[in-house]
């Protein structure tokens, strides 16, 4: 977030905080949540994990992907002022259980319509972003990865401003936010100088319509093995760049250089939800457009459940598509003597940068939730996955596995993912 607006907000909060502290006795409330969850794929060729985790497990039960524990401390200074700190621990990029501060902010409820918040918060990109780690809050075994995965980061340090107002028979909310962030993958570290966006929500009876637009600018890779191993490739690409005879060649090299020089993009997510106590419906459509070599993308999620006492059977359909830059590329150059080098570099780009993004897939979901207690839910979920490109070495949530000699294990594009979880709150 730019320094001057941030200092202005800090000053505004500082002027009003002493009066708030003098009015009421602060109250502390400790709560938490967690999941003891096991997952298993039915094919040794494909492992499952979260995209920020180090290990993917294939064809064996594992508690690493979805198990987590969160603790939240709420500080109620008075009816207008509230602070929150939330820490969530789970397997992360180092391959071990690691706690991370997800929330740490102070909110000022100016009046019933306006709220100002400053600090660390989860970026509200999708309808489940702010509750995605609270397994108990999800109908299914986890927040839908197809739309959650459209946005590579999690939260930001900055500010947001929310306004709510009655509109017709319902309520409308408008929220704007801005800040900075950093995030880590097992092989790459990023810093993002600018995160900004707006969110519109309209609730009418049992329906909720939501649209979020998020932009990032000046995202730069600052470390990690991926950055180091691609330096020779980038040097070679920059050597042939003056000889590019086609837009594909020059555009690809420019996009790859932006990995460390700075890139940006925007994300749009449209959601429609319904909950009447018996039926539950969650639908979401998300798009991503970036100016680096990472593919643009789109995803769709639909999940329908029926509450029958303590049991809620549910079914769903999801799909995720990389819309470009997921297949082989060719570099045409003007100098014939440079063409062999260009062909070699194009092959490396295709295999190492583009093919890992070719995880286009469809998912068919069937599950059962059993609310055995008001603070405990047991879930069983079966996801039937269909991958479009069976020969690609894709990474992310579903990871191709090598055999003993380092070659990719044969895969026919069909995969089952089994999930068992006990989600709780306290």
TrEMBL record:
<protein>
    <recommendedName>
        <fullName>Porin</fullName>
    </recommendedName>
</protein>
<feature type="signal peptide">
    <location>
        <begin position="1"/>
        <end position="22"/>
    </location>
</feature>
<keyword id="KW-0732">Signal</keyword>
């Amino acid at each position: 977030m730019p320094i001057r607006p941030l200092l202005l907000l800090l000053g505004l909060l500082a002027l009003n905080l002493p009066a708030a502290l003098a009015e009421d006795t602060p109250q502390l409330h400790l709560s938490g949540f967690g999941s003891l969850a096991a997952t298993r794929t039915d094919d040794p060729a494909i492992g499952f994990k979260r995209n920020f985790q180090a290990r993917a497990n294939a064809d064996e039960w594992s508690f690493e992907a979805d198990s987590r524990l969160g603790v939240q401390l709420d500080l109620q200074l008075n009816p207008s002022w509230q602070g929150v700190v939330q820490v969530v621990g789970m397997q992360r990029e180092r391959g071990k259980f690691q706690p991370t501060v997800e929330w740490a902010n102070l909110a000022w409820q100016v009046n019933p319509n306006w709220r100002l918040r400053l600090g660390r918060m989860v970026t509200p990109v999708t309808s489940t972003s702010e509750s995605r780690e609270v397994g108990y809050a999800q109908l299914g075994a986890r927040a839908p990865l197809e739309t959650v995965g459209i946005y590579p980061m999690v939260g930001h340090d900055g500010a947001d401003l929310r306004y709510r107002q009655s509109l017709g028979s319902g309520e409308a909310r408008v929220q704007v936010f801005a800040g900075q962030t950093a995030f880590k993958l097992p092989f790459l570290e990023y810093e993002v100088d600018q995160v900004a966006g707006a969110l519109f929500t309209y609730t009418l009876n049992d329906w909720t319509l939501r649209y979020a637009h998020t932009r990032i600018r000046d995202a730069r890779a600052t470390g990690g093995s991926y950055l180091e191993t691609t330096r020779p490739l980038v040097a070679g690409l920059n050597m042939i760049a003056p000889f590019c005879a086609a837009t594909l060649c020059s555009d690809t090299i420019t996009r790859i250089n932006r990995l460390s020089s700075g890139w940006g993009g925007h994300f749009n997510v449209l959601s429609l939800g319904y909950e009447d106590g018996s039926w539950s419906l969650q639908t979401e459509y998300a798009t991503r457009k970036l100016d680096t070599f990472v593919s643009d993308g789109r995803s769709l999620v639909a999940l329908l459940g029926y509450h029958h006492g303590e049991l809620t059977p549910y079914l769903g359909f999801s799909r995720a598509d990389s819309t470009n830059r997921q297949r082989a590329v060719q570099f045409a150059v003007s100098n014939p003597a440079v063409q062999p080098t260009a062909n070699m570099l194009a092959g490396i780009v295709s295999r190492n940068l583009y093919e890992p993004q070719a995880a286009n897939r469809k998912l068919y979901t069937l599950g059962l939730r059993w609310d055995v207690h008001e603070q405990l839910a047991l879930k069983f979920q079966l996801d039937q996955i269909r991958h479009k490109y069976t020969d690609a070495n894709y990474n992310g949530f579903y990871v191709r596995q090598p055999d003993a000699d380092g070659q990719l294990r044969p895969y026919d594009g069909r995969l089952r993912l089994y999930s068992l979880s006990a989600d709780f709150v306290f």
